[in-house]
């Protein structure tokens, strides 16, 4: 793990870092200067030469690298990444609760929990850090970008581990609501069980033969023609579990651009959200034993007949 960053956050984002590798087995060094290392390690879009001249790369003490220094193995170089423009997500992030340790919000659709890929500043974590001036804010768990609902974040570094264990060990009650296709021939409640695997770089997760690692209970709350509103209770927490299992059962969720088929993604189109919300979350607070329960107020729009 790197030491504490010498650079403050910028736009709610922590500084990035790269570490120079160890000497080669024969004791020789791979580069002559720190400039050579940075040019080799960072992509062209990092504009190393320009940013060296601006003093944008610093050492552990916050001193700028000129690039002319002799190469130093086992050394950290800190910097802020250049950010590409992003389409603003036109939704506020309502607060459900705020304590000395926790921030609980009702995350909107289309807003990722944490920075990833092209979504950086337009994420729940970064927006909340900036809007509420909470630089140590961190998620206790995650909702994917297209899923709305109850999201819990911690406000202090010293409590992160305690709350993370609650979610990692699934010591909480969590239910979702969704609108999807309805099939009158299917008997409910329905228990979906299977093995889910997701390959890095593949947009879709897949159900494959093998020992089950994913389980979801599906209950019908309301039927309107060809669609139904469902309560989904996941026993496990695999990536895209609810969306994939519902699609595989012939009950795909309305507004899903990945299941059963991958559709084109327009980051500026917010007209057809995935009809999936993390509706209710309850757990015992690991710090003081308080029984906490939160309910999302997000509404799911029924599709046109």
Poorly predicted regions are none
Question: Tally of extended strands?
Answer: 13
> Treating each run of at least 4 consecutive H or I residues as one helix, how many helices?
5
Query: Under CATH, the topology of the largest domain is which?
Result: Pseudouridine synthase
The coarse silhouette is elongated
Give the C-level CATH assignment of the largest domain.
Alpha Beta
What can be said about this structure in brief?
By secondary structure, the chain is α+β, with helices and mostly antiparallel strands.
Key traits:
305 residues; alpha+beta; Pseudouridine synthase; 2 domains; eleven-stranded mixed beta sheet; two-stranded antiparallel sheet; 13 strands; elongated
What do you see in this structure?
By secondary structure, this protein is of the alpha+beta class. The chain has 2 domains: 64 residues; 201 residues, Pseudouridine synthase (2-Layer Sandwich), CATH 3.30.2350. Helices cover 13% and strands 27% of the residues. It is built from 5 helices and 13 strands. The strands form 2 sheets. Strands 3, 4, 5, 6, 7, 8, 9, 10, 11, 12 and 13 form an 11-stranded mixed sheet that branches. A two-stranded antiparallel ribbon has the order 1-2. The longest helix has 9 residues. It is elongated. It starts with 15 loop residues before the first strand and ends in a 10-residue tail after the last strand. The model has no long low-confidence stretch (mean pLDDT 95).
């Amino acid at each position: 793990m790197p030491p504490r960053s010498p650079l403050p956050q910028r736009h709610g984002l922590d500084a990035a870092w790269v570490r120079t590798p160890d000497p080669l087995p024969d004791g020789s060094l791979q580069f002559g200067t720190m400039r050579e290392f940075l040019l080799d390690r960072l992509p062209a879009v990092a504009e190393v030469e320009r940013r060296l001249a601006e003093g944008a790369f610093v050492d552990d003490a916050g001193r700028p690298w000129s690039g002319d220094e002799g190469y130093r193995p086992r050394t950290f170089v800190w910097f802020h990444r250049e950010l590409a423009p992003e389409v603003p997500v036109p939704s506020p992030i309502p607060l459900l609760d705020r304590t000395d340790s926790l921030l609980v919000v009702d995350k909107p659709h289309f807003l990722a929990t944490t920075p990833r890929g092209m979504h950086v500043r337009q994420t729940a974590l970064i927006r909340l850090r900036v809007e509420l001036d909470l630089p140590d804010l961190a998620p206790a768990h995650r909702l994917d970008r297209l899923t709305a609902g109850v999201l819990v974040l911690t406000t202090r570094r010293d409590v992160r581990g305690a709350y993370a264990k609650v979610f990692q060990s699934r010591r909480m009650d969590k239910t979702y609501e969704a609108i999807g296709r309805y099939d009158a021939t299917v008997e409910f409640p329905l228990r979906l069980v299977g093995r889910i695997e997701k390959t890095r770089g593949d947009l879709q997760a897949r159900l494959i033969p093998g020992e089950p690692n994913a389980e979801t209970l599906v209950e019908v709350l309301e039927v309107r023609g060809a669609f139904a509103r469902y309560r989904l209770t996941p026993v496990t927490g695999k990536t895209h579990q609810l969306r994939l299992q519902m699609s595989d059962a012939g009950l795909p969720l309305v507004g899903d651009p990945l299941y059963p088929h991958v559709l084109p993604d327009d980051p500026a189109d917010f007209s057809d959200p995935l009809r999936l919300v993390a509706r209710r979350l309850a757990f015992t607070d690991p710090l003081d034993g308080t029984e906490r329960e939160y309910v999302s107020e997000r509404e799911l729009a029924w599709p046109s007949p």
